[in-house]
Amino acid sequence: MIVVERLRWRERWVDWLAAAAIVSVAFALAGLVWRIAGHAGTGAITVPSEARTRAVTVDTGPAVAWQPFGSPTAADATSPTAIQAVLKGVVFARPAELSVAFVSIGNEPAKPFKPGDALAGAQVTEIRRDRIILNNGGRLEYLAFPDPFGQATPTPGQPAPAPAANFTVPAPAAPAAAPPPPSAQTVLSRLNATPVAGGYAIGANPPPGMRAGDVIQSVNGAALTDQSAVNAAIASAAASGQAQVTILRDGKPTTVSIPIR
Fold first, then answer.
1. What digits encode the pLDDT tens for the residues 219-253?
2. What is the pTM of this model?
3. What 3 state SS string does the chain have?
């Protein structure tokens, strides 16, 4: 009997658990159908929108004070300053208070200036990489580096010189005239040649390739017996700078090349 009762209790527990599971599934299906039908907001507990989204406030004060892109008021400095000063160098740093500009006022040597310093009646408000911003009586002006391309930099406060209206390109120089070719007599004089039977005999200090006592018989094929032909041959050889000279050496004809110019 005891065993039978225990089996009956176990069966009842299984039935109760199955019933609870069926009820739970039924409630879940009912909620799903209710939402599909468009009644999700009816009878539901809603969370106010203020509680769902919390506004996040970001303090941008330190970032703005750091001025990563420069002071916003410096953009108004569109006019060059009239102060008689020249910007010589800049040490650009962050934070801006560490920047230093070296400015020469008039004929004085360059001196360091920091933001907030007074400069010839104005105040340095900002130092940039290529210029400094000045507060001159409430008006923002800038002092930039001189022209890096070597052009004349106008004196501060004076208008820039107007460019020339036109310019003239100088004409190319005429080539030097070529010297006239040497005459036959000039060439023979350089060779210390004297007239002999059948041509001209070379004297002392002969040119390379020739000997003293050689007898010149022809120049570029023109025999020295005809003076006009010799002049024409030497004039032609002068154009190339060389002449083919036939000489008689030890009773034998020999052709050598000698400079004419």
1. 877 777 777 777 777 777 777 777 778 888 888 88
2. 0.33
3. CHHHHHHHHHHHHHHHHHHHHHHHHHHHHHHHHHHHCCCCCCCCCCCCHHHHCCCCCCCCHHHHHHCCCCCHHHHHCCEECCCCEEEEEEECCCCHHHCEEEEEECCCCCEEECCCCEECCEEEEEECCCEEEEEECCEEEEEECCCCCCCCCCCCCCCCCCCCCCCCCCCCCCCCCCCCCCCHHHHHHHCCCEEECCEEECCCCCCCCCCCCCEEEEECCEECCCHHHHHHHHHHHHHHCEEEEEEEECCEEEEEEEECC
